[in-house]
Amino acid sequence: MSLDNEKADVAMAEIRGEPKMSQQEAGAYALLSEDDAAFMNSFSEEQRKKLLRKIDWRLIPALGFLYLVSYLDRANIGNANIEGLSADIGLTGNQFNVALAIFFIPYILLEIPANMVLKWFKRPSLWIAIMTTTWGIVLLCTGFVQNYAGLLVCRVLLGVTEAGFFPGAILIVTNWYSWSEVGVRVALFYTSSALAGAFSGLFAYLIAKMDGVGGYEGWRWIFLLEGGVSTIIGLICPLIIIDTPALSKWLTEDEKRYLILRKEVEDGGREVQAKGHKITGKVLFATLTDWKIYLQAIIALSNTIPNYGFKFTMPQIMKNMGYTSANAQLLTIPPYVLGAISAYISARFADRYRWRMPFIVGPQFLVLIGFAITCAYSQDIKNRIGENYFAVSLACIGLYPIIPGANAWNSNNLAGPAKRAAGIGLLGTFASAGGLGGSFIYIETESPKYPTGFGMSLGMATAGIIAAFTLEFLLWRINKTNEKYTVEEVKMKYTDDELADMARAAWIDEKIEIELATMRYVAAKTTIPVPHVHAYSFTEGSPIQTAFIMMDYVQGKTLKDFGFKKGKKWRGSYSGPSVTTSKLHAQLADVYTQLRQLEFPQIGGLGLPIVDGKPSYDCDPDDIRVCHRPLSIEIMMQELEGMDPSARIKPRTTFSTARSFVNSLFWLAENEFDKSPDPGFDLCGGRNALYARHHFRRFVLDTWLDSSADKGPFILMHGDMLMLMSNLLFDDDLTLVGVLDWEWSFVIPAQMLVPPVWLSGGDTRWMLTGANLFYKEVRGLVAAVRDRERALQARPRLSQEWAKLEKWCHTAVVVALLSPDLTYDAYWDLVFYEAEEPKPEDPDFDFREFYMKAIHPRLTAFMEAPERKALIARKEEGQKRFFEDEKEYFENPNVRSILLPEEG
């Protein structure tokens, strides 16, 4: 659960429209020359993917390997210890623990200064090379230490030389990837820390066999060989680490140009962003006093304290089981491999389900169980080898998912880029400090029981579980409390700027993510021509401090350009299209047939997987899920008018049945009627509207809705294509070249996927009585759909479903469900006569007489309900207040002086 930016959906809905940037608007690449902008737009999605794969294979394995080496070099002291380190140099008491801990003091203190030094280097790989070479030399020197003091000096120097590696690696990654691509690459580093433990055991096993070679003990050879390898790697770093696109000979000139220009656009925006999002004293104070970060710190420490202690001591635990030093080294490998796999799987599931807590608490329970077993059986460890080894493996499986989960959860709950940056840094400091504590919990004199080590690990796992549950509960309670705020209370609690920022972050970002996810999914799963997305941003993190999508400009014509016109009178004469060809039907059939094949288990808007705390467009399309509410124009309009539709249809609300979704649509209609200020309200019209809404709902739920398809599967629809033909672009030969504007798309019951209402050129209200012309066009489209299904060798589902559309004027019912203002017309013009009270065929039919005899008694009885009387009275009172406010406004002298200036 996340704290929804202090529950923005209860804030006053001052929603500003976000620019969806394309060449059709004010210059997608305003920072570039016309030639460069044209080049960027011509760079295809396939070219971009190919380029990213090429970079991934050249850069990420190299940096991941270096991170593995750095982790291995700081932790191999644990492997060296079971080969005789402490005994040979005369360590006593807790001196070994001090040697472990002292590494972290310079490591923590020098990360920021090292990052500042890094800025002096034009080639970060040179800085990486210097650090890797120097820590390799330090490790070589560790192989020659003769006493406790020498070991301490080497450990301090190792902390100094490793401190700047990770910031340098991050800088190199940001030279190559856009901000939206960095997170998943950095996440791969986390698996290196687990694999380092596995390789450490393997290398130690092999190197320990050199005991006595050259007169050196086996533990010295661990430092000497691994230090020597690190030194050599450092010397060749400039050859294997790629700094910038401009310096890379393995890229084509077009690939270099694309990467350089993309970075130029992003960096130009980031200057603007930095000015508005600096870490000020106020932001720093807000970060330091944010209780959520301290609960996250407990969660992080529940990993780092047991993990570092375990990493340094696991070889000794294996040896205590009765194995030789060499075999003990080998036995450390499987637990770490399992830990790496666990970290990856947990992160994927957490991103997929967008819920961090279960994928933190679940692993912590494994840690708890693992250390509980070791506490129970460690004193008889040689006779309980199976139980203890299982416990060690279980603990590793549980430890490694915790830090990635905590980092993502922490990032999700820090509002604003400045506070987020400060909060992430603060959590990182706490996590690194866990290495200090972890160095002291496994005391050599307590071997093999290690009551302090196992007990502290048990305690930290328990504390982490409590902290995670506490954080989840407090966030849930805050969200629940905020849901109860009235608009006036919200205004008192927040400034206008804060309200606007929260509303935009919660609502606009939701809309942007749905459009991105839908376009990504449709582009990957179909051949529907969807514009390529070049860049995007959410409200926070945008170079221009707003949400946007930058996509291809699609050159084409709308159907209006071909003479396809829409009738102006809702019951006027038919004004059909001048171009209605079999080719047009074939183009539409292709789109709708492919959409019909996209099935989902829930109703709602599509969402992107979360990577590094943010939705990521560059994802596996199979990771895109239904996780948002079915955001619609109706919800947007109610938000804009202060009707608070989010009170019922909350963000991230999905529906598992068609009935529950349809009920939510009727709730929106009720919400609009109940809360909208209607100056034209009259008693008779209001009573008729209530009656129509009630009976239309009963008709839809009891008669119209297909109960056999209530639980799906459900279908993706293009939200605007139903009503607007301008979202389709064609070339001169009437071949579809682009389907635009997917922002209102969401997954619906299959029964509600209907042909576009503009197909016959008629207005929606006109279609209720002129539906025969509409369905004449539909028959031609159904034939084209049937042909397309055969060509795709698909089941003839859509053609069979659309063949039944004429019953109850099916499409008109769907349109009325999605547009509540049409409910009145849909009921009285369609449902009442078709389903309830057939209109007499008498040519002298008198509607007024019919109304008084057949309808008025029912309506009068219907309105006897007290709640309906109260609602009508409230609407009349609202109308009265509206006119009083209007009168007061226009009688204001200042207003009158503007509207009615005195003649000079």
Notes on the protein architecture:
Among the domains are: 205 residues, MFS general substrate transporter like domains (Growth Hormone, Chain: A), CATH 1.20.1250; 280 residues, Alpha-Beta Complex (Aminoglycoside 3'-phosphotransferase, Chain: A, domain 2). The chain has 35 helices and 11 strands. Strands 3-8-11 form a 3-stranded antiparallel beta sheet, covered by helices on one side. Strand 5 and strand 6 form a beta hairpin. Helix 2 runs antiparallel to helix 11, helix 7 packs antiparallel against helix 9 and helix 16 runs parallel beside helix 18. It starts with 33 loop residues before the first helix and ends in a 5-residue tail after the last helix. One of its GO terms (cellular component) is membrane. It is found in: Membrane. One of its GO terms (molecular function) is transmembrane transporter activity. It is a multi-pass membrane protein.
List the helices and strands and how they pair.
Blueprint (H helix, E strand, L loop, with lengths): L33 H9 L2 H37 L3 H5 L5 H8 L1 H6 L1 H8 L5 H19 L5 H15 L2 H12 L2 H29 L10 H23 L12 H24 L4 H8 L2 H30 L4 H7 L1 H21 L4 H20 L7 H15 L2 H11 L4 H22 L12 H33 L3 H7 L2 H30 L7 E5 L10 E4 L30 H15 L2 E2 L4 E3 L2 E2 L2 E2 L9 E4 L4 H8 L17 H18 L7 H22 L9 E4 L10 E3 L5 E4 L6 E4 L14 H6 L1 H21 L5 H6 L7 H9 L4 H14 L10 H16 L3 H25 L2 H7 L5
Antiparallel strand pairs: 1-2, 3-8, 4-7, 5-6, 8-11, 9-10
Helix pairs in contact: 2-9, 2-10, 2-11, 2-14, 4-8, 6-9, 7-8, 7-9, 7-11, 10-15, 10-16, 13-20, 14-15, 14-18, 14-19, 14-20, 14-21, 16-18, 17-18, 17-21, 19-20, 24-29, 27-32, 27-34
